Amino acid sequence: MTSIALLLGSLRADSVNRKIAELLRDEAPAGIEVTIVEGLGDLPFYNEELDGEQVPDAVRVLRETVAAADRVLAVTPEYNGTMPAVLNNAIDWLSRPYGAGALVKKPFGVVGAAPTPYGAKWSHADALRSAGIAGALPVEDVTVSHSTLEADPITDEAARAKLIDALRRLAEAQPESAAA
């Protein structure tokens, strides 16, 4: 069984990206277990003064959940041409301690949707770059940037198939070759 921790970049309960996250969790191929990491909105902004022996509970849960997973997938929209602050903040917490954070050597992919012609492409590139700097192993061929102007990714069979395939490819990525 390959476990994937899913970081959701949207806090809105009815967001299309939450629906994508739930689709991936509920329709994951056999042998893949997806856990949506809840509580990203409860994380304080990263502050080294809070990052000691005792960290806030939301940070502890985030780090433990991601550390226990084999892979990490971000599902995110795009806010003003970049990734949402909630996802950036989660990556900040997961990058510490430097060189030994919960993301280190974990294959990392990103998918999502936005109501723009680019479908959150810039956000996805930023998330891959940030996670890579944090020590993750970006798997670029997993990226799916879907424009909701074209089709609803939840009801459109082709869009659903792309998302499920991305999940499968992330699960199959080998850590030593993920960054290639």
Characterize the structure shown.
With 180 residues, the protein is of the alpha/beta class. The chain contains five helices and six strands. The protein has helices spanning 16-26, 57-68, 85-94, 121-133, 157-172, and strands spanning 2-8, 32-37, 71-75, 107-114, 137-138, 144-147. Strands 1, 2, 3, 4, 5 and 6 form a six-stranded parallel β-sheet that branches.
What's the arrangement of secondary structure elements?
Blueprint: E1 2-8, H1 16-26, E2 32-37, H2 57-68, E3 71-75, H3 85-94, E4 107-114, H4 121-133, E5 137-138, E6 144-147, H5 157-172
Parallel strand pairs: 1-2, 1-3, 3-4, 4-5, 4-6
Unreliable stretches (pLDDT < 50, length at least 5) are none
Helix percentage:
25-40%
Radius of gyration: 15 Å
Count of runs of 4 or more consecutive helical residues: 5
Question: Biggest β-sheet: count, sense, barrel?
Answer: 6 strands, parallel
Q: Separation of termini?
A: 24 Å
Order of helices and strands: EHEHEHEHEEH
Beta-strand percentage range? 15-25%
The computed structural class is alpha/beta
Shape field: globular
By DSSP, the count of extended strands is: 6
Taking all residues together, what is the mean pLDDT? Answer: 95
Nutshell version of this structure?
Strands 1, 2, 3, 4, 5 and 6 form a 6-stranded parallel beta sheet that branches. It contains 5 helices and 6 strands; from the N terminus they run βαβαβαβαββα.
Key terms:
single chain, 180 residues, alpha/beta, 6-stranded parallel sheet, 6 strands, globular
